[in-house]
Specification:
single chain; mainly alpha; 0% strand
Length: 292
């Protein structure tokens, strides 16, 4: 019953995959030089002062001002028609504005413009993110692989492809990509958590705990990381630690984790009660006195 519960908890989640998100105050970040999604507000503020209209528009869109960013881009069409970076920026702003079909359209436009491998890799990776949102996983995989082909040294499409592979249980390949990225930054919480989750799925709990322990305290409190870390500790029988991790996690904004987190906390409390009950009935006071 215990193993069934753990499998059920894993199935209820997003299969342990992690997403690229803006990380305020996080120093360890292997992807920060490649992805605007990793830029904090301070860096975006600097980008917003750029004389380059496309960069200024991207700063607006990444800063939550998508309509203003789109206005800047639409006014900058003249002279940018042949620039892949311009159409990529349009696609990104529509992606951030959750208008995904338009995002795909403009990313496709960007790929028809002449550009180098690095730019093509960025566009293909962005296209893959849209397909992930739309749950077009075959197309997402194709886009991420194309990005890696365009620029084999790019880390972001490898990270995204690894998350997709984790989702579908292709753990060996995902592990290879993630270990490659870990060489760039040994403390990146997303990479460590991803490797820890793979170890959990492989039932290598000692290794899983080792990866999660390497994440700093702030990272351990992230709801996605805290859940999987607590699940490892629960499976190791470290119930007090598992309960503490779940109790101290940040407010859960990931809807798919709310129910599993509550379920896991319930299992932890239930297991702790079972242990206390066993201890109670094993105490000398419950043994029969000889001759009574």
């Amino acid at each position: 019953m215990r193993n069934f519960s753990i499998v059920l908890l894993l199935l209820l989640t997003s299969c342990g995959s992690y997403q690229i998100k803006r990380r305020e105050g996080i120093v360890a970040d292997a992807l920060k030089s490649e992805s605007y999604l990793r830029w904090n507000n301070q860096k975006l503020a600097i980008l917003a002062k750029s004389k380059n209209k496309v960069e200024k528009a991207l700063a607006k869109c990444h800063g939550g001002q998508v309509p203003k960013g789109l206005v800047i881009l639409k006014r900058s069409l003249n002279g940018n028609e042949t620039m892949a970076s311009y159409w990529n920026a349009l696609g990104t702003c529509y992606y951030l504005g959750h208008r995904l079909p338009k995002a795909i359209y403009f990313y496709q436009m960007a790929l028809t413009r002449p550009s180098g491998g690095q730019t093509k890799a960025m566009i293909s990776n962005n296209m893959g993110l849209v397909h992930m949102k739309l749950r077009n996983y075959v197309e997402a995989k194709k886009s991420f692989k194309q990005a890696i082909t365009h620029n084999p040294s790019a880390l972001t499409p490898k990270f995204n492809l690894a998350q997709l592979q984790i989702k579908f249980g292709l753990l060996r390949s995902a592990k290879q990509y993630l270990e490659n990225i870990l060489n760039v930054d040994q403390k990146d919480p997303d990479i460590l958590a991803s490797l820890g989750t793979i170890a959990l799925f492989e039932n290598n709990l000692t290794l899983a705990e080792k990866y999660f322990n390497k994440i700093d305290v702030r990272g351990q409190k992230r709801e996605d990381i805290a859940y999987h870390y607590a699940l490892v500790l629960f499976h190791l029988g470290k119930l007090n630690n598992a309960k503490s991790i779940l109790k101290d996690q940040n407010n859960t904004f990931i809807m798919s984790l709310r129910v599993p987190s509550k379920h896991l906390m319930g299992l932890i409390v239930e297991r702790m009660k079972e242990i206390e009950t066993r201890k109670k009935y094993r105490t000398p006071s419950n043994k029969k006195v000889k001759g009574s």
